[in-house]
Amino acid sequence: MDAFLKVDYLKKSFKNVEVLKGVSFEVYKGEIMAILGPNGAGKSTTIRNIMGIMYPDEGSITFQGHTEIPRNKIGYLPEERGLYKNVKVMDILLYLAELKNYPIKKAKERALTYLKKFGLEGKENSSVEELSKGMGQKVQFIASILHEPEFLILDEPFSGLDPVSQELFKEEIRNLAKGGTAILLSSHQMNLVEEMCDRLFLIHRGQKVIYGSMDNVKKEYANFKCTIRGKNNLEILHGLPEVQRVEQQEETSILYLTKDVNVASWLKHLPEQLEINELSIDRISLHEIFIDIATDKNMLREEVAIDA
Amino acid sequence: MRNAMKVAKWEVKRNLRNKSFLIGLFLTPVLFLAFMFLGSIFGGSEPEEEVSTRVLISDELGVTDVIEETVAAHDLNWELETTEIGYEEILEVLKEAENTAYIVFEQEGFENGVVPVHTSEEISPYFMNQVQVLEVPLKTLQMKKLGLTEEQLAAFSKQLTFEEKLIDETEETAEEESNLVGTDPLERIIPGAFAGIILLSIIFSGMYIFQSASQEKKDKVAEIVLSSLTAAELMQGKIIGYFILGMIQAVVFLGFGIPIALWKLDIPIFDYLVGPEILLYVLIAILGYLLFAALFVGVGATMADMSSAGNFQGMVMMLPFLPFVFIGPVISDPSGLIAQIGTYIPFTAPGVLLLRLTFLEEWPWIEIVISLVILIVSIWLFMKLAGKIFKTGILMYGKNATPKEIWKWIRS
Hints:
The complex is a heterodimer.
Chain A: E1 3-14, E2 17-28, E3 32-36, H1 43-50, E4 58-63, E5 74-77, H2 89-99, H3 104-117, H4 133-145, E6 151-155, H5 163-178, E7 182-186, H6 190-196, E8 199-204, E9 207-213, H7 214-221, E10 224-229, H8 234-239, E11 243-249, E12 252-257, H9 263-268, E13 278-283, H10 286-294, H11 299-307
Parallel strand pairs in A: 3-7, 3-8, 5-6, 6-7
Antiparallel strand pairs in A: 1-2, 1-4, 8-9, 10-12, 10-13, 11-12
Chain B: H1 2-16, H2 19-49, E1 53-59, H3 64-73, E2 78-82, H4 87-96, E3 100-105, H5 107-112, E4 117-119, H6 127-132, H7 135-145, H8 150-157, H9 170-182, H10 186-218, H11 222-226, H12 231-265, H13 269-273, H14 276-300, H15 311-318, H16 323-332, H17 337-344, H18 349-359, H19 365-393, H20 403-411
Parallel strand pairs in B: 1-2, 1-3
Antiparallel strand pairs in B: 3-4
Helix pairs in contact in B: 1-12, 2-12, 10-12, 10-14, 10-18, 12-14, 14-18, 14-19, 16-18, 17-18
């Protein structure tokens, strides 16, 4: 696959605090790549460096091999975003398209199509002030894709959206990727990321924690876990085969299983003295991996160590 | 530069479609002119209330024609009426009447040099002053009757004046004289006022830049826009855009001002405006704009909110009004020390320079050049600094930058 963006060993410090400690990743054409991390991990800083709003202290950023930012080919929906008040929706869309050197006539047509698609038909002549927060966000999203960008950066595109609008955004983002757009998406909604993204980059304290395709990450890190409700002795649980770790809270025990466990046979061999009121087996979600890292629980580190 | 022009176009278009800007655009000159002409409106209303004075003349000397001419020439609000009615009866009439006067021109009074004037109880307070204008023509008439020739008359009626001449300052007095007498002061004042209006308009629009830069932060559009162009282009675009808006403001201002001035002042303004001076005046005004625009766009970018401006930002906002401090001293002595100091401080230079050039006959070219150089260097410097501040400030959300932080951005 063709890499549109290549970030190589990016370093950036603010006031002697190193915010990015050598971040490297790529974004390919036609893929949705997620950049994840807790607040303050360095996501927005990375994105701002990519956009040329800030300059890295070290490292390089190249777009299809060039260091110069092809601004007209990039669409950007920043986390801190808004629109000029007291201007018409269509006016601001056309202005932002004009800044990208996109033909006005085509922009107008596309704007009307998208407004219709997002349920904002007839709003083109309304003032931005009159829009609700969600509507404003839709307009910002349209603005970021109106000029048919080859590379799209979406920083928290779903925050503050209702589920219906979330679906709309999701579908549109998928369509764009299908059309060959390289997409870098940052979000805290792990379920959405898990659903949509092809690859992910997890950053914590300015460093890479996980980087790879969603499938691989799941295979690597999202082991099975077994949740049992019932009064059970911690030692018995520890003694079970293929159990890496046990978390017990009152009557609920979560057993983290090893990577190569065969779930069916493992279930068969559960001892009869266990009190089981409820039992469920599922994979560790991206959400849990994320929380684990963000709260420094070291579970993953252990696993990484095991893998290594 | 192309991107900067796009931003400029957008700022102009956006503001021209904004109701509050449009209202301000027209209201400012209206209010300004209204205050300027408030005095003359009140002044002008007095003659309307004033009923014309009825002046009865008993003419034994045949001076009616001369008096009528004089009254017409001085535009006196008199209703002249010759009367044959006897002295006693007239006095009775005067007792009843208002705004009526009775002047008796008879041989006896003429010889004594006293012309009796009787007035009704209520009469215009200016009437007795007005009557004095009759003195010269009557005197002339009197002398003519005495048989003087035209030449003798001319010599006689020439008044003696005492002219003050100081010995050691002869040259300067001569210069000042030529200042007052030699040329028409309007020749300078009108282009000066013209440039003043331009300067004022663009300083106002400089304030809009301020608002625009901080609004950009408040609306959080900056980051979206900055994905398409550089911070420097955005800043330049804003400066150009608001310059155009300032010119529009100036045109509107003059569109109101010139017709009113033509109507009220009865001066051929256009004749005075067309001259080489106007170019220098406009240049000074534009330089002044660029200086304040750089200042405002930079400071505006450090503020999250107009209403929460800190002391530092507030002080910067007051800078354009600094020249007002100099108005008094400069007018009283346009080439004095204070005027010169004002010329060399970048923030006051445009205002003080315009004021001085308006009042000075001989332009101090060396001072003008030094002042312009100082201005241009400061503009260059402030543009640089503003660029740095703008780049960092525009992306800092939620709080105002402290002077310490700004200093750090400048140094980085």
